[in-house]
Specification:
Growth Hormone, Chain: A, single chain, 2 domains, mainly alpha, 85% helix, 264 residues
């Protein structure tokens, strides 16, 4: 996802100036269709797929009800909601901020794209750190604290541009820990092995809600205040809730460990 966002941040200004925003939207639709065809070609239906389809399946509504009745999927969904809200809020308006600072829109888009690409580093690092035994709650809480601090440097401080851009890179890299941790946690938080897909789906719904709400709310905040200097407050609130989710996950994990010990 960070790679795709970076490519579009770089390509969109050229597409809009060359063919207009409608054609730019058509181009993204064509990319999505091409990706769907590529997946269909790379993974054709096999006899094993047909055999699995013939087996009795759990009711989708039953799995959804089981997922929504379990605390684990809710923690993942809330965490992803506020991660998506802060990340999109932090980086969607950076090109506008750069333009208002007198930076060429194409250069601003390229700088933002490079910063967004750093998120992939955090995605990969999260898996490595989890494998080395770092607790997922520790990663979430640490990431949330760094996000809050870096968002203030980017939007709330009067630091030189170079320092503010370094803060944007840092925020992107460190915030990439969050989705990596959440996705890695899905198998253990799903209430049933068959409910992994519905757990991922619920988590993705949280992501969609966060993306849909963050931009208009941050834009409204900027409009009321007259500039972008309070954006860091909104981002920090989102980061604080991610930290709270990390604490809740620590308590949830401890409770499950205690139950398992009692059963033994």
């Amino acid at each position: 996802m960070p790679l795709g966002m970076s490519l579009m941040l770089i390509a969109t200004p050229w597409l809009i100036s060359a063919v207009g925003w409608r054609s730019a939207w058509v181009a993204t639709s064509v990319c999505a269709l091409g990706w769907a065809l590529l997946i269909a070609r790379a993974h054709p239906r096999t006899e094993q797929d047909a055999a699995q389809s013939a087996r009795p399946r759990a009711s989708l509504m039953g799995l959804m009800a089981l997922t929504l009745a379990s605390p684990g999927p809710w923690l993942l969904a809330v965490g992803f909601l506020f991660y998506a809200a802060q990340f999109l809020g932090a980086f969607s308006f950076l090109p506008t901020v750069y333009r208002e600072a007198g930076i060429d829109p194409r250069a601003g888009g390229a700088l933002t794209a490079v910063a967004v690409l750093g998120n992939a580093v955090g995605n990969l690092a999260s898996g490595h750190l989890l494998q080395r035994g770092v607790q997922r709650s520790t990663l979430l809480i640490t990431a949330a604290c760094v996000i809050a601090m870096m968002s203030w440097v980017i939007y709330g401080s009067t630091a030189p541009f170079g320092l503010r851009y370094a803060a944007a890179l840092t925020l992107s890299i460190v915030s990439g820990l969050v989705p990596g941790v959440l996705f890695a946690t899905v198998p253990s938080y799903a209430p049933d092995p068959r409910a992994v897909s519905t757990t991922v789906g619920w988590m993705q719904q949280g992501s969609g809600i966060g993306q849909a709400l963050s931009l208009p709310l941050i834009a409204l905040l900027a409009q009321r205040h007259g500039d972008w200097s309070l954006t860091w407050v909104a981002i920090s609130v989102c980061a604080g809730i991610v930290a709270f989710v990390g604490l809740a996950m620590r308590r949830f994990d401890a409770g499950r460990t205690g139950q398992a010990s009692a059963i033994r």
